[in-house]
Amino acid sequence: MDISKLNQRIQIQKGVSKTDEVGNVLRQWQDFYSCFASIKTTGGKERQKGDTEEQHSVFFTIRFCNKLSVLSAVDYRIVFREKTYNIAQIDFADYGRKYIKIKAESEESYGSISTENDK
Fold first, then answer.
1. Which residues lie closer than 8 Å to 73 by C-beta, 6 or more apart?
2. Are 110 and 56 in contact (CB under 8 A)?
3. 32 CB neighbour count, 10 Å cutoff
4. Within its chain, how far is the Cα of 94 from the centroid?
5. Are 86 and 57 in contact (CB under 8 A)?
6. Cα–Cα nearest to 78, from 22, 23, 13
7. Euclidean distance between CA atoms 81 and 91, whole angstroms
8. Which DSSP letter does residue 108 get?
9. Helix/strand/coil for 35
């Protein structure tokens, strides 16, 4: 991969569980690692249960470093251009410890449409 394509800054955040004063377990996000990435968008998917919600998938390609070897889809997420993306898949295998390819889906919906038939 041409390093000049890694031209978008992303923030990788780690989820940390904390317990409040009454014993509720709360998930908080802390900045873990900031780096440059190559971004490729793919088609989205729609779900329909009363509302139609559109969700977009994005592939982030970043340079490998030892700190990132702990990445998992459960405990980490990505923030890019003030939008949050939940990690769906991490591919360490095909890049010879040079790059990591991450598939992520947008956390927020891009619009909601309710129909009369949904009632």
1. 86, 87, 88, 89, 90
2. yes
3. 18
4. 20
5. no
6. 13
7. 23
8. S
9. strand
- Distance between CA atoms of residues 89 and 56, nearest Å: 14
Q: Are the C-beta atoms of 62 and 37 separated by less than 8 Å?
A: yes
Q: What is the pLDDT of residues 33-76, one digit of tens each?
A: 999 999 998 765 555 555 555 568 899 999 999 999 999 999 99
Cα–Cα separations (whole angstroms), residue 56 to 4, 15, 44, 63, 89: 25, 22, 4, 23, 14
Question: Quick one: pLDDT band at residue 31, thresholds 50, 70, 90?
Answer: very high
Question: What is the distance between the alpha carbons of residues 87 and 52, in angstroms, rounded to a whole number?
Answer: 22
Residue 53 has what pLDDT? Answer: 54
Helix (H, G, I), strand (E, B) or coil at 37: strand
Amino acid letter, 72 = S
